[in-house]
Specification:
disordered N terminus; homodimer; about 210 residues; about 0% strand; DNA-binding; 12 helices; globular; mainly alpha
Amino acid sequence: MDEASAAQREDLLLLPAGPVQERADAARNRAKALAAAELLFAARGVAAVSMDDIAASAGVGKGTLYRRFGDKSGLAAALLDERESGLQAAMLGGPPPLGPGAPPADRLAAFAAAYLEFVDAHLDLVAMSQTASPGARLRTGSHQFWCQHCRILLSAAGAADPGLRAGAILAALTAEQVRHWRHTEGRSLPELTSAITEITRRLAVP
Amino acid sequence: MDEASAAQREDLLLLPAGPVQERADAARNRAKALAAAELLFAARGVAAVSMDDIAASAGVGKGTLYRRFGDKSGLAAALLDERESGLQAAMLGGPPPLGPGAPPADRLAAFAAAYLEFVDAHLDLVAMSQTASPGARLRTGSHQFWCQHCRILLSAAGAADPGLRAGAILAALTAEQVRHWRHTEGRSLPELTSAITEITRRLAVP
DNA sequence: AAAAGATACGGACTCAAGTCCGTTTATGTC
DNA sequence: GACATAAACGGACTTGAGTCCGTATCTTTT
């Protein structure tokens, strides 16, 4: 993600581009790290795995981990990446109401429901990607994506303050908030879905 | 806060109460710690002060700090406590629209505006109280208080899912979210206030 | 006022995140 | 195929949060 945004920045500023492709050993180590992390998380749970554990298990130095992924949240984001991309594709080009074709308010509600389900299904990983450091969530590339999607739909629906409302909707769908509703308060997923979609509808009407 | 909730629990369960009052040395050390923390935060900023710094500056062992306040977020909460109590009093017994007398939707909007202003005014401290550990925010005593207040008002206004909507409103007003709006996106406080009060109104109508 | 028991003290200790920098390895060039 | 150099490596190191437990202090009881 660091590299992606760096590359993008360079593109935008028309600077001479850095190396377009990561070195072979770097790619190999990234893959080893992701594989090791996935295994360890599955075996012990996200919370019980340290970066040292991952580095050791991947047969890689700790510095390498941090160079590749920036920090713990970056590693989580990388692991989530492929699982997110299905949702992102469905939002951009899939069938309505998630994809284009339905009225914006319906698309927004569908997004909220789908995103809630996604967060619930990958709670620990999403939590790690959002809470590794304070404010991590808002700096995430994915957050930018979700937020922009919501903003555009709200805007298309004629809602006031689309940017702020988009942020508010995503704030309600934080991993820790969802965890609290689901596990501390024991709410069911359908219950949450219904409440969240209703909230988005109310924010989407002009 | 730990002690308060423990005492409350004992009350509720009618167990023989523990010591009603903290020991003299304990009270003295709590005061020393709070004073030292306040000074250091003012001098260097919240982020640049460690628990060791505070312990050393207060002339107190680190263990004492943790016994009194539980963790970093507990210390922040303790510092915030007296500043919050004004707001809490105004909500419970002050003049409308914040206090009783105004229609629930108006009271909710007034609360959101006042709480936003409070968070903005004590951003770093609130951030520390919310983000010291993952999920810290939702375990906070204050959070329970704000959340219940919102829930009751939403309920009185006849809104569906008052508990969930209350959580959603407060989720939009986390310190990191407010920091992002104010400092990363450069929004003004009135702009945020207007957007947030509008959101609460939309969630409050039946 | 002395002794007993409960409570609190404090700093050494553990554990994990994130940094640094001397060494190694890949890649493009002659 | 050897060389230059940019990039990547890896593990020791620093820093700070939170825990532990032997010692000191307070409070209550007699």
